[in-house]
Amino acid sequence: MDIxxxxxxxxxxxxxxxxxxxxxxxxxxxxxxxxxxxxEADTSEQVRLVIVHTEPNEAAIDLSLAAGVQVxxxxxxxxxxxTEVRIRQAEQSSCRIVAVQLHGANTAxxxxxxxxxxxxxxxxxxxxxxxxxxxxNLSTNHLVSQCTSRALVKGIAAGRATxxxxxxxxxxxxxxxxxxxxxSRNIELGEGHIIAMxxxxxxxxxxxxxxGATVGQLADEAIFYMRQRGLSEDDARRLQIEGFANDxxxxxxxxxxxxxxxxxxxxxxxxx
Amino acid sequence: MKxxxxxxxxxxxxxxxxxxFTSDIETDMIRRGLDEEVIRLISxxxxxxxxxxxxxxxxxRHWLTMRQPEWAHLDIxxxxxxxxxxxxxxxxxxxxxxxxxxxxxxxxxxxxxGIPLEEQxxxxxxxxxxxxDSSSVKTTFRNTLAEKGIIFCPISEAIREYPELVRRxxxxxxxxxxxxxxxxxxxxxxxxxxxxxxxxxxxxMELSTYFRINAQGTGQFERTxxxxxxGAYVSYLEGCTAPRRDENQLHAAVVEIVVxxxxxxxxxxxxxxxxxxxxxxxxxxxxxxxxxLCHDNARLSWTQVExxxxxxxxxxxxxxMGDNSVGEFYSxxxxxxxxxxxxxxxxxxxxxxxxxxxxxxxxxxxxxxxSYRGLVKVAAKAENARNYSQCDSLLxxxxxxxxxxxRIDCRNKSAVLEHEATTSKISEEQLFYCNQRGLGTxxxxxxxxxxxxxxxxxxxxxxxxIEAQKLLSISLEGSVG
Amino acid sequence: MDNNMLxxxxxxxxxxxxxxxxxxxxxxxxxxxxHAIMGPNGSGKSTLASVLAGSDKFTVTSGEVAYKGExxxxxxxxxxxxxxxxxxxxYPVEIPGVSMANFMKLAVxxxxxxxxxxxIGASExxxxxxxxxAIVELDAKLTSRAVNEGFSGGEKKxxxxxxxxxxxxxxxxxxxxxxxxxxxxxxxxxxxxxxLHRPDNATVVITHYQRLLDYIVPDVVHVLYHGRxxxxxxxxxxxxxxxxxxxxxxxxxxx
Lengths: 272, 481, 255
Known about the structure:
The complex is a heterotrimer. Chain A is α/β, with parallel strands linked by helices. Chain A has helices at 3-8, 220-228, 233-249, 255-271, and strands spanning 13-14, 18-19, 29-32, 36-41, 47-53, 58-65, 70-77, 82-89, 94-101, 106-113, 119-128, 133-142, 148-157, 162-171, 178-188, 193-202, 207-215. Helix content of chain A is 18%, strand content 48%. In chain A, the strands form two sheets. Chain A has a nine-stranded parallel β-sheet with strand order 1-3-5-7-9-11-13-15-17, with helices on one face. In chain A, strands 2-4-6-8-10-12-14-16 form an eight-stranded parallel β-sheet, with no helix packed on it. The mean pLDDT of chain A is 95. In chain B, helix 10 packs across helix 11 (441-457). Chain B is globular, with a radius of gyration of 22 Å. Chains in contact: A-B, A-C.
């Protein structure tokens, strides 16, 4: 299965940018290889958006969510793309993102929680193999009070690849009652190299902010558990790494995309 | 409740710096400014051998090519390095053999500082090297230590008397080219302590250096070199204070520690340089390079309580070169008023089975900015490296900032590294609970902050822990309401 | 050798670090039997289960364990499992992102391959999943979720028995499968275990409470204390322990 087929089969509907208020949202929208695109989510309907990069472009994506709008965004990098995704969220809007890099690429998310009650949830995965270099930049900016953000970024660096996560939670002065969490979880295989920089910059006091980062910590208990059920140690480890990655993939709300990603990940891991 | 916290903030701002006195001691100073002639003059005053002067000059020439680092989360006003007096020492008539011969004014200074230079030292069992401005004034307990073969003396004396040891280790952990401030220090350092613990010796008492900047317009550039030879152990304490002045004074120190095979060093600091007044005027710029090198099975533990200085730039680090070596960093950094701190550590895992642990507790009040900055690095051949880092920030008041800038850089798949950080304020529930049991708000905040810092304070030797606890409460005065 | 003998443990000693936890265990379990192991906290019950399953947290320092006449201690964890030794975990492990179905299919097929059988087909496998999950009234939805992830305490324990049903072990060791269960869940789990009982398999239940033994009636009850089995009796022993506690036994027992 590939993305073109999902479009041809009518599962995804191509979209070229602009306002969503007059767009048919019955099927998920897909933007293929964008260079520069602006999307205004100004509809009361649930928006499902997919962005796929199959060519090594430079892409600039602007997404703005009007008050109360709910968007799910899945971004998939299958080529060495430089992308910058800027998201601005208005009052009570909600944006849930699944971002997956299956190729050396550089993705920068800049999320502005610009009005009260905005919620952002991002789950990202990079799988760096051979001598690739994957970079995920994430800055979540709490500009006003009472916004919530969650970030979970998982990374796998195998072969001689480097995977890099640079995260920042910024809380502006007066952005009180901010609730922000950022987690970075990484595994190294072979001679992989991980760099993780989860940062907090906080100028308000009534906040609940936390971040964490780990490298190389898949639970040995899980390996014991699986072997106790008869799986070989190699299979148990491979399954665990697949599970580590699929934990992100499974958050995507489009079954066909989940399946596409799970297969692609399993294939890449099989090669290692 | 809102009003309550405002009260806390108001009352904290009344806080005072009790070490702000100056001492009227006759001082030997050189002219303002820095050039090769000044460096030659310092070296000459210290009666240094030629190799030492050469090293200083190399450092100076390298420093000229460097720029002040700007990556820290600090707003550093321009510093005129030609407007600083690089050498100031209390005048001594001759070398002293007994405590009674010390300048009485100097003795009173130390009494005010609460430095136990006299007989009470015997009771508390702490050997002290006191550095006033640029010179070591008095080192206690030399003879007791000498019996064990332990050398503990001013570094200027060590350069003259133990040149082999000093040449072997000086600059071996922090090279003169390491960074801007370390290069400056290497060029102009005028005193500090040297400590050597021979093979297999466990130092029977805590060793301690007390630093004080006294003279106006001077900078302080002390250099500390500690060597624990194979299987040796020492616990080392460092305290610092400075008079209250409207000008900013520069303190750029270097501490180098070498822990040979199976050795162990504990280095504790209670840093209470003058932080400036509540408008942010004056205070010490504390730009310090501290690093230790651990060989096989060696252990180095840094503990710091940082409450002073207008600006702190300081990252006590461990290079875990040897197999099975262990590095630790325990820190409480408190900032109030307009103080700024950018402090943390670097743990460099190079040997196999190396372990490190980082516990950092930041407390920001007033309009201060407090940053933790850390690096955990695992080299490609560092099998089975382990690190656990916990970095918490506590905010008191809504005008301050608390920041966390960790970096993990891992090149070995067998490593297990874990970093956690939280930021929060003192909970209203805790305050209410304490208030309800009859505690005043300021008292309650002091209590909660001390509880928050407990894990780090517990790592300090007893006398220091008590002083540090008091310091935390004093530094908080006027920031809570 | 007795052909019915499934497990024979002789003078088994095991330590974690310098601390010896099992200090000479002797235990024989025959096909068709149900054994209960009771004892106060910290007596070594869970350690015994983990050591038999092959956990590398513990070091066996001496003793022998024969399973179906072969040296169990020489086998890797998965071989013990494939030969039919099942451990029901006291704290079932969460494996994020790994679906129950995928996990069980692999496990079932590993066992079948080991036994020289063909791997199971997809539709037959699904039928088997449905059938076995009914035994413990496990919500079918849970089998499409990640292993144990987000399961409640009761669901995790039911899931253990479900997996036991899927793998049809010869010897099941159930480590405090009853702990943390409400009375309904306890009944379901215990009835599930009883349904799976056959003349050619055996069950060892480790428990704190007599109430589980109302459903799973043991042939033998052992009391484990300080790393040794200090007393064995019939099912009435469990009732006596429930009423009188362990003190009377412990006082009798001298190191």
